[in-house]
What does this fold into?
Amino acid sequence: MLRRAGVLAAALACLVLSPIATPAQDYPSRPIRLLIHTPPGSLVDVLGRLVGQELSQRLGQSIVADNRTGGATMIAVEQLIRSPADGYTLMISTSEATMQPFLKKSYRYDPIKDFTPVALLVTSWTVFAVNPKVPANTLRELVAFSKDHPVRYGSGGIGGVLHIAGEMLKLRSGGNFVHVPYRGGAQAATDAISGQIEMVSMGLASTRVAESGQLKILAQAGPSRHPMLPDVPTTGEAGYPDVQMNTWFGLAGPPGMPKEVVARLDKELAAVMADQAFRDKLAKLGMAALFKPAAEFVSYLADDSRRWQELIPAMGIPQVD
It folds into this structure.
């Protein structure tokens, strides 16, 4: 009897003294689902799969892309929020997370409180291009021209990043720019090439259509000249430093994710973003690495939200829905 009691006491001591692995410490122990709110082949989709592939190798688990499109990101967002906060469902988040609350009445999600911001990953920016027949070779010349000849500009739709960029240019330059919404950026570029409109607001990744001289790219609304467009001045260099349209892409999870899981993801994502081969791949997509771990990402989101809360009403863009 005493021997049994001794064995039992020893076993209990081992349980007390030995650390017990938690699910968060074992993370990840099964495949991870990555929600993408745009269709296959889109820029967000391509980035998500690229990040997923690199992160999968570092985590030792598969990352499965799951395209949940529609509802102006709402379908993917609601799927994410309803998922367990265990790190096995994540989503590629974009600038729309901080813009939508001020553009759509039905968008009721706070980018910080209703999610777990995991990391800011990359950024890209907008370019302004015109039909070659437009008598302007600089952004300042285009603004001056627009005051006597209204410049119609196209984007991929009302309330999108490229629309906001055009309205920012209008607000900050005092130019006469008239928005023409399209169902997609490709059609807007096509009409700018054919002369149906004078200008198109487009993403860096779409600028290859201008390589043959079909469009004149006057400025890029980013912090520096992107390697894809080394000879095109920034809006700051063109005289409009307040016209900055950076599109950010990050990683988010359901609210309440364990800190250990977020820390593990941040550690591996930092390594992915620092890899030069990966950064070269981003450059070919018209992007640039801008890694910020969770705490810094939260601050970034707060600043971005305050910016759009001020700017979007000033641009005169009405809330819809």
